[in-house]
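Many introductory courses stop at the sequence. We go one step further.
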Amino acid sequence: MTLQPTEWTVESKAWRGAPRPALSVLIPFFRDDPVRLLAALDSATAPGIEVIVLDDGSGEADLATRVAQTVGTMALPARFVRLSTNEGRSRGRNRLAGHARGGHMLFLDADMLPDRPGFLADWLALVAGRNPAVAFGGFSLDQTPRTREHALHRAMALKSDCLSAAIRAEAPEKHVFTSNLLVRRDVFEAIGFDEAFTGWGWEDVEWAMRVAREHPIVHVDIPASHLGLDTAATIARKYEQSAANFARVVAGHRSVVETYPSYRVARLLKVVPLKGLWRPALKAVAVADLAPLPARDLFMRLYRAALYAEAV
């Protein structure tokens, strides 16, 4: 028998009795501190907004206390949900959506920060004007500190992820991340995140592939900065975790994934012999701080493709 995690909640004074909001802002976290983001959202004091934050079993009492205190003093209707055990990225987000009362839900990662004061107002205007099924606002590194240890992640993100709405719209499902994602309630109730995904990676893109069969995915420029860049070693570890998830995506959506460059490179690397020798070498260069940054970028992408070669 699988025990369900215990759930504790803390609410702001404005939560009870608040009218149904137009937009529920949903913030899951696992050991990331969402307090700075909560403060930025609360300072906007936008009507028609509620905020719900979920501690997905971080097990850090000091962090939970700090978040609870912040939520308890927010002017916006806000709720803090703390789980006793970790449920994972997909299941945790599905649970978080179950607490939402709004007609649309905006998923924000805890390490994001809106890039402009009108961030929430812009999302509300989009909801009122277009009522989109799904919309992704994009993300930037505009407010992200520059550090040597995060130089590789910055370079990779600027090249592949920090894209304009026009560019993202060329492959709508590919450029969907839960870092800044708007979903209409009826869409999410019909199509939730696949809880069979474990670890890191691909659960959001796979969800978007299923949604795109029935609904248009809108891309807009309502960006937030991604503050939580990873070290090269952490990127490599996440790619290693994501290989099984990539295999699941290929199994369910091969015709879509076949158009991705990462798939095509993985197919080429699949037939290269002696993987046990050259794949570790790719990783060694990618994580080497003294190697030229363009080479590290290339070798990290090749390392990911080499891991994914097992799935294609």
